[in-house]
Amino acid sequence: MKIITSCCLLVILTLCGCSSQLHTNVPLVWKPTNDVYSLNTENVAPLYARKIQLATFSDSREVKDEIGKYIEDGANKPVTTHENVAAWSKERFGYILKQYGINLVECDADVTLRAEILRLYVTEDKTYKGTVGLKITAVNKAGKMLWQGITSGSATRFGRSYKLENYYEVLSDSYSESVSNLLKNASFIQALR
Predict the structure, then answer these.
(1) How far apart are CA 91 and CA 157, in angstroms?
(2) What is the mean pLDDT of each run of 10 residues along the chain (193 residues)?
(3) pTM for the complete prediction?
(4) Exposed, middle or buried: residue 82 (CB in 10 Å: 0-12, 13-18, 19+)?
(5) Quick check: 165 and 31 in contact, CB under 8 A?
(6) Would you list the domain boundaries of the chain?
(7) Which of 23, 42, 102, 137 could form a Cys-Cys staple with 114, CB 3.0–4.6 A?
(8) How many CB atoms lie within 10 A of CB 78?
(9) List of residues 6+ apart from 11 with CB closer than 8 A
(10) What pLDDT, on the 0 to 100 scale, is given for residue 144?
(11) Contact 104, 53 (CB under 8 A)
């Protein structure tokens, strides 16, 4: 009877999100819930004539493997990844640019974009709140800086406590918004004409 009671209690705690299992060394999963096509493509039309290359992204975050944390009611449960966040970030950035019809190339580019990850994080405290901040530098073929600035994105949503899927969704939506906000930036578009 003790075993049955213990098993039932364990199942109940797991279903309620009260499990003590930590989300450590998880893969980075792209799981956006927002549509990236909300941007008026007339704004990015000047970029269609450009060949754009993405340089290797850098990650200047203090704790490179931490992508989130559950802090509700004084808890301190980190969410960490074993993956290279800078490589994942570059891949996602390129994926979003391609969705907007931007011509990405591996060599002989008119413009090279460099990105430094300043923030890529989800905090859970009653809701999931994600923020992504990227410092973008655009240079021409000669290496002359054309533009430099910060782009950011955020997302918030409700969800069951400490659920990995919710972290993925908020992180993906925040990241999508940061790239979309860059493409809405008139000075960025103007500098790359």
Answers:
(1) 25
(2) 49 46 95 77 87 98 97 95 98 95 96 98 97 98 97 95 95 96 95 93
(3) 0.87
(4) exposed
(5) yes
(6) 24-191
(7) 137
(8) 15
(9) none
(10) 98
(11) yes
Q: According to DSSP H, which parts of 21-134 are helical?
A: 85-99
Phi/psi region, residue 143 (left: phi>0; alpha: psi -120 to 50; beta: rest), is: left
Token representation of residue 49: 């004539």
Residue 179 in tokens: 């790239």
- CA dist., res. 92 & res. 50, Å (int): 20
Q: Which CATH architecture has domain 24-191?
A: 3-Layer(aba) Sandwich (3.40)
Structure-token pair, residue 171: 């992180």
Q: Which two tokens stand for residue 48?
A: 């269609």
Tokens of 58: 């850098």
pLDDT value at residue 21 = 85
Pairing, β 66-70 against β 77-81: antiparallel
